[in-house]
Specification:
The structure holds two protein chains of two kinds. By secondary structure, chain A is α/β, with parallel strands linked by helices. Chain A is built from ten helices and 14 strands. The chains are: A alpha/beta, B mainly alpha. At the A-B interface, α2 of A face α1 and α5 of B.
């Protein structure tokens, strides 16, 4: 069942068009990653979804029990990239306040606050002032306040980008747990995070959707035969790249120091061709691997194109 | 209504935790007490100033108690307004600047409740601080200078209070309009000063201006025949307060981006 439908959404800042007519929809129960490099328009899109920013044009529809809702906010939970709280409040006070603002009664808010503190693992800091919280604790507190009213859709803006590896692992673990009951949309520029917990991916670049679909589908449909060659040094890699670039079996060459990643049309033919070229140009091959392109290759291809 | 209560309680708590509930009334109390005390001891103070040639005779007319209280109101009008503006300048803009609004306004909250609760909370603090200072001034005036007529004092106090209500409503509006707190303080002070200055300069044409309220309050206390009719000033002031609050709500609602950092 469709939960969120975005149609031709655009945002124009004075000179700069941050988001260009993007359309997508999110199915209930899925975990969706909004993927893209910094400055692609992820945060702008999220701000429009949450109602913090008015779209220039386009339409956002949220469905609850099959019917479109007028005000999306009761059904949304939102955690910004750098959540800011009232530093003079204690963690518990803030989450209770957020819960009551979202429409919970005082008793409900108190009860849910304790539950969520337990889940995100900051119950020990509950009665301390937020001013003294660390970045990781603020992120967890942000999750608690976003989830207190049991939203249908949880929207997270770069939830793990600013955390250390342990904090990152913890937040991903919490998300893994929440996704059982809530639909999640989160933005990230780290492909690895998306691969870890997501069902669907929306890859945006310069305000436009480059690729979207389920992770499985994208893996299969965008996977191309690829050969990875490691040469002795950068000069040799360069020489080999120039030699093979215009051959018919080569689709795309990406070089990084002494390594070449060559997307090809036919593995066997390409491998034979590359070997011949290497011998001709006296290139020493340290390592040659024939396989298929990964999601990261796709990401790099889209972003660099 | 429920959200109004939540927001209002939060503002009260914030003011308490940031000690505004202590220092703002303290400043007003100090201002209020200073005026009658210095007036009373003025001859002594001058005598001890020490740089008078021998044989100087200073005769000063003893001011009436009403005059002393009117002078106190003048103090409130300058330093008092400054203190109010400085302590409340970030009431809306500060929250937008910090980014906490992006957590608040993604919850299903009403802009009207949010803004009116803010207005009501500043109003509460202002009334309390003014009452403190004014009561202090009255007490020392009665002790040191002479008795006061209760009816006159209350009437003048209410008039002056309305002027403060006008000031904080302007402050709320400007705080909703401008993104940074220093700009809010400057613009509000500049506006209030220009209004007061303009009103006294063009008193014939601006006899309805809200800043006449402070003059009227002084006139009531000093029993001077009042220049302007009180009615229009009252109405204009009340309407401006209402318009300021409504515009502030409208401004928040119609903003393209709620958080200033978007």
């Amino acid at each position: 069942m469709t939960l969120l439908k975005v149609d031709q959404l655009s945002k124009q800042f004075k000179q700069h068009q941050a988001v260009k007519k993007i359309s997508f929809s999110i199915e209930e129960g899925r975990c969706v990653a909004l993927l893209g490099p910094n400055g692609a328009g992820k945060t702008t899109t999220i701000h429009m979804l949450t109602g913090l920013l008015r779209p220039t044009s386009g339409d956002i529809q949220l469905y609850h029990q099959g019917r479109q809702v007028a005000d999306r906010r009761p059904h949304l939970g939102y955690l910004p990239q750098m959540p800011v709280f009232y530093s003079w409040m204690t963690g518990r006070e803030f989450v209770q306040y957020a819960g009551q603002l979202a429409g919970l009664s005082r008793q409900e808010a108190e009860r849910c606050t304790e539950e969520w503190f337990e889940i995100v693992g900051i119950q020990d800091a509950a009665k301390r002032r937020i001013g003294g919280y660390s970045g990781g604790m603020k992120q967890r507190l942000g999750l608690a306040q976003a989830l207190i009213h049991r939203p249908k859709l949880l929207i997270l803006d770069e939830p793990v980008s600013a955390l250390d590896p342990i904090g990152r692992r913890d937040v991903l673990r919490i998300l893994e747990r929440i996704r059982q009951e809530t639909t999640i949309l989160f933005s990230t520029h780290i492909l690895h995070d998306a691969e870890e917990i997501c069902d669907d991916i929306i890859l945006i670049e310069q305000g436009e959707i480059a690729v979207q679909g389920s992770l499985e589908h994208i893996r299969q449909s965008h996977s191309e035969p690829m050969i990875m060659i490691e040469t002795l040094n950068e000069a040799q890699a360069k020489a080999l790249e120039i030699a093979i670039r215009n051959n018919p079996y080569v689709n795309h060459v990406a070089s990084e120091h002494q390594t070449l990643r060559v997307t090809v049309s036919n593995l066997e033919e390409a491998e034979r061709g590359i070997m011949t070229e290497a011998v001709q140009h006296h290139v020493f091959i340290r390592k040659l691997e024939a396989g298929h392109s990964t999601l990261e290759d796709l990401f790099m291809k889209v972003v660099r194109a | 209504m429920r959200q109004f209560g939540l927001f209002y309680r939060k503002e009260m708590l914030e003011m308490a935790r940031s000690y505004k509930w202590i220092w703002v009334p303290m400043v007003f109390l100090l201002l209020g007490v200073m005026q009658p005390v210095t007036t009373y001891y003025m001859p002594e103070i001058l005598k001890h100033a020490g740089n008078m040639p021998a044989g100087t005779i200073i005769t000063m007319p003893t001011p009436t108690s009403g005059e002393v209280l009117a002078q106190t109101l003048n103090q409130f009008g300058t330093i008092g307004v400054l203190v109010l503006v400085l302590s409340m300048m970030g009431i809306v803009s500060g929250e937008r600047q910090s980014g906490v609004t992006s957590l608040i306004f993604t919850k299903p909250v009403s802009f009207i409740a949010y803004m009116t609760a803010k207005w009501a909370s500043i109003l509460t603090l202002t009334v309390a601080a003014f009452a403190c200072g004014y009561a202090g001034a009255c007490y020392y005036t009665i002790q040191l200078i002479g008795s006061l007529d209760v009816g006159t004092v209350i009437q003048a106090g209410l008039m002056y209070m309305l002027w403060f209500v006008f000031v904080i409503s302007v402050l709320l509006l400007i705080s909703a309009w401008l993104p940074n707190s220093a700009g809010v303080a400057f613009t509000t002070m500049a506006f209030i000063m220009l209004l007061s200055f303009g009103t006294s300069l063009l008193s014939r044409y601006l006899s309805w201006s809200p800043s006449r309220l402070s003059t009227i309050a002084s006139e009531i206390l000093t029993k001077v025949e009042t220049l302007s009719s009180v009615g229009p000033v009252l109405w204009i002031s009340l309407c401006s307060v209402l318009i300021c609050v409504m515009l502030a709500v409208y401004r928040m609602q119609s903003q393209e981006s709620i958080s200033a950092k978007a």
